[in-house]
Each structure stands twice: as C-alpha cells, then as structure tokens.
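Dear colleague,

Thank you for sharing your sequence with our group. We've completed the structure prediction you requested, and as agreed, I am returning the results in plain text so they can be pasted directly into your records. Please verify that the sequence below matches your submission; if there's any discrepancy, let me know and we will rerun it promptly.
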Amino acid sequence: MSRWHRTAGSSPLGGVERADLILLAIPLAFCAVYAAASLLARGYTLPVAGGSLAAGALVVDGLFLNPPDEA
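Please find the predicted structure tokens below.
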C-alpha cells in the first residue's frame, strides 16, 4: 500500500496540518480582500492596506496565538 492510499472513511485533508492551511489562507485572504476593496474604493491604497491587514491577522494567529507544534 502506498502512502497516498486512503482507507474508507478517511478525510482527504487528514495529512494537512493547521499551519499548512494558514499558509494557504494568507494569499487567499489578501486577494479576496483586495478584490472586494478595489470594487468599493478608487486607487490601490485602501485595497492593499485591507489585504495586508487580513493577511497579517492570519500571520499573527499562525505564529503567536496558535504556533505550530515542534516536531
């Protein structure tokens, strides 16, 4: 059996840790907030600031509030 073989009832995200999900969410949050704010505001200052705050909140959560476990 290979390591990619899943057993019945196993989650497809079983091997993904919280830190990996945060790393995925950082650019997604930036892009989502940037896109929404660019529709509402003229220029790029407000969308970039909003996206940076959203991504920064995830960084703070991933590093300080819920740091990854040491292996």
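Summary note from our side: The CA atoms of residues 17 and 68 lie 9 Å apart.

Kind regards,
the structure core
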